[in-house]
């Protein structure tokens, strides 16, 4: 139990409820660190028999457990009249085929040496005709919430963190990262704006299935899994395609007693003034300098106390041989600026070569600062 007898899950929820007396939870994502080190035989032996929540707890932190992210999923997606085939074509590459009555879509994925992270090399949509096939796929999807899987995840977390869920990306981000790729999306928007915007409505219709299912789920804190970067999603694109969408999603989920935040893990300075117009409750993974493009003072100026800040500590401060005095100074600064609206964590994940002593240090600093 944490501050005032609350579990970490309750403390995190209390931050969204604007209850400042709960202090600053330290809530992290460390799955990639854990599984990469396990795969390459460098996981410290004291963690070999620990589950993910217990590893966090041993560091003085709690776990932000996302359904389906290195753990089982509590949201099921079922396709009708669609066949999906994945074929390994080399040690690190996988070919994916989606077969439908209207035709097929193909994509290619590359994996790291441990098979734990991936990059799309070839996107499924290559022509305007492919939009018609993908529309059939997305419209065929049925979304289900798995209560038993959710309860298993809750038992793993043990109140030492939260079970959460990130939605499929918004239409523009889905085009960038799932369906067309960045270059083709920009080219299509210039040449075929009407057709692309029509297809954004198809993606929106697909996403609404997830919102409807999660609105009646027991999960209170939800994430728009966007990966926003201002070098890709410019303020102009953000205002035109993202802002109205986020406002609509926020309004819908708020009516169902949910809190929702957005994942912004790239350069973000030009977008900071727009974030507070989204109607969303918080921002996850915003990365200040030296890894990002803005200072804590600039973040405070633009967002003030209007949104919850999740994470905030640049991942660079956890790498070996980094002067821990810089980490300590940063933690003191971010707590002084955002305490009461802060769920402290790593922007956005703990790197595999991290110095775990630095993670433990953050917990001790928080204890000194806020108890």
Could you explain the architecture of this structure?
This protein has 371 residues and is an alpha/beta fold. It has a domain at 3-67 and 146-173 and 205-370: Alpha-Beta Barrel (TIM Barrel), CATH 3.20.20.210. It contains 13 helices and 14 strands. It has helices spanning 8-16, 31-39, 52-58, 128-140, 147-157, 171-179, 182-191, 193-215, 235-255, 272-275, 296-303, 324-338, 356-370; strands spanning 27-28, 62-66, 75-78, 83-90, 93-100, 103-111, 118-122, 142-145, 161-167, 221-224, 259-263, 282-284, 308-314, 342-347. The strands form three sheets. An eight-stranded parallel β-sheet has the order 1-2-9-10-11-12-13-14, with helices on both faces. A hairpin with a 2-residue loop joins β5 and β6. α4 packs parallel to α8, α6 (171-179) packs across α7 and α12 (324-338) runs parallel beside α13 (356-370). It starts with 7 loop residues before the first helix and ends with a helix. The mean pLDDT is 96.
In short:
This protein is α/β, with parallel strands linked by helices and 371 residues long. It is 42% helix and 21% strand. The longest helix has 23 residues, at 193-215.
Q: What gap, in angstroms, lies between the N and C termini? A: 13 Å
Count helical runs: 13
Largest sheet: 8 strands, parallel
Q: Which H/E pattern describes the elements?
A: HEHHEEEEEEHEHEHHHEHEHEHEHEH
CATH topology of the domain at 3-67 and 146-173 and 205-370: TIM Barrel
Overall mean pLDDT stands at 96
Oligomer classification: single chain
**Derived structural class:** alpha/beta
CATH A-level architecture of the domain at 3-67 and 146-173 and 205-370: Alpha-Beta Barrel
């Amino acid at each position: 139990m944490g501050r005032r007898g609350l579990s970490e899950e309750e403390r995190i929820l209390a931050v969204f409820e604007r209850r400042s007396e709960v202090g600053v939870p330290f809530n992290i994502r460390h799955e990639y660190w854990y599984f990469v080190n396990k795969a390459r035989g460098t996981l410290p032996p004291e963690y070999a028999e620990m589950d993910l929540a217990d590893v966090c707890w041993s560091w003085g932190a709690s776990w932000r457990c996302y359904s389906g992210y290195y753990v089982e999923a509590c949201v099921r997606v079922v396709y009708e009249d669609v066949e999906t085939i994945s074929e390994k074509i080399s040690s690190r590459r996988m070919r994916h085929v989606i077969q439908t009555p209207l035709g097929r879509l193909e994509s290619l994925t590359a994996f790291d040496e441990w098979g734990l992270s991936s990059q799309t090399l070839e996107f499924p949509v290559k022509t305007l005709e492919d939009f018609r096939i993908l529309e059939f796929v997305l419209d065929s999807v049925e979304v289900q919430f798995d209560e038993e899987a959710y309860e298993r995840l809750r038992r793993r977390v043990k109140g030492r963190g939260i079970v959460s869920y990130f939605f499929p990306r918004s239409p523009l981000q889905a085009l960038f990262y799932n369906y067309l790729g960045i270059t083709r999306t920009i080219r299509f928007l210039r040449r075929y704006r009407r057709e692309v915007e029509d297809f954004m409505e198809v993606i929106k219709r697909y996403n609404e299935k997830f919102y409807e299912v999660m609105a009646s789920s027991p999960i209170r804190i939800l994430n728009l899994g966007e990966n926003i970067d201002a070098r890709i999603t410019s303020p102009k694109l953000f205002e035109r395609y993202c802002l109205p969408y986020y406002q609509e999603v926020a309004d819908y989920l708020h009516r169902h007693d949910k809190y929702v935040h957005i994942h912004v893990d790239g350069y973000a300075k030009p977008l900071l003034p727009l974030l507070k117009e989204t109607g969303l409750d918080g921002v996850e993974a915003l990365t200040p300098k030296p890894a990002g493009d803005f200072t804590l003072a600039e973040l405070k100026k633009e967002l003030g106390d209007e949104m919850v800040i999740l994470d905030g500590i640049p991942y660079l401060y956890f790498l070996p041989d980094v002067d821990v005095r810089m980490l300590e100074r940063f933690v003191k600064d971010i707590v002084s600026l955002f305490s009461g609206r802060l769920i402290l964590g790593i922007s956005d994940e703990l790197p595999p070569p991290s110095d775990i002593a630095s993670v433990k240090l953050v917990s001790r600093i928080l204890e000194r600062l806020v108890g």
